[in-house]
C-alpha cells in the first residue's frame, strides 16, 4: 500500500524540520548566528489518467487528470539573514555590524571565510583575531604599548600609544557583501564560505557600497525568535503525528484485508 511509503516521507521530512528548529534554539545565544528554516517540495506523481487525454472517438477529453503523489522531501535549509539585535558589551574589541556586510577571516589553508561574529581578540603577536583564533583579513596589528583602541563606524582602527593624547591610525577594517547571502556555506565556528550560489564577495569599507557600519562595544545577537521557533516546533510535531496516524490507518486497512475469508 503506497500510503505507508508516502506517510513515511512525511515523517522523515518533519524529523529533518525538527532538527533544523532544534539547532536554531540551541544557538539562541550564539553571536551573529543566522537562523535556518527547512523548505519542502512534493515528489514525483504517478499519472493514472493524464489531463487532456481523449475519452472517446468524438473528441471528448478528460478535464482533470488522476495523479497519485509519492510524498515529500526536504529540498533546502536556507539561512534567514535578517539583522539580529545589537547589545552593548562595553568591551572595546567587540564590534557589531549594522547592515549587510561580513568580516573577512583568513583560514589556515589560505581560504577566506566570512563571519558576523565581531567578538575580536588579540593574539600573542598583537594581531586582531576571532574568538576561534583566525586572523582578520586584512590583518591589523595592535602595538603592545597601546593603552586603548578606537574603532570608528567606517572601520578605521586607531590606538592610543602610551601617554599620547591623540590616537594613531593602525588599520582599516573591511567588509564583504554578497548578492545571495543565503547561498553561503556554513562551516561552523560562526564562519561561512563563498559558493557559486552566493556569488563572489564584493569587498568594501564600512559605510560604503551597502556594507553597513560598525558599532564598537556592541555585539550582534542571533536572529532567533524563541516564540516563533516553539510555534514551528509544535506544528512540526503535529504534522509528524498525523503522518504516523496515516501509517497506523493504512496498517489497519491491510490487516482488515488479510482477515477476509
From TrEMBL:
Name of one Pfam family that matches: LlgE_F_G_D1
Chief place where the protein resides: other
Residue span, Flagellar basal body rod protein N-terminal domain: 4-34
Entry keywords, A to Z: Bacterial flagellum, Cell projection, Cilium, Flagellum
Subcellular location: Bacterial flagellum basal body
Domain Flagellar hook protein FlgE/F/G-like D1 per the UniProt entry, residue ranges: 96-159
Coiled coil: none
Chain ranges of the Flagellar basal-body/hook protein C-terminal domain: 216-260
Assembly with partners or alone: The basal body constitutes a major portion of the flagellar organelle and consists of four rings (L,P,S, and M) mounted on a central rod. The rod consists of about 26 subunits of FlgG in the distal portion, and FlgB, FlgC and FlgF are thought to build up the proximal portion of the rod with about 6 subunits each.
Family from the record: Belongs to the flagella basal body rod proteins family.
Descriptive protein name: Flagellar basal-body rod protein FlgG
Protein's organism: Devosia albogilva
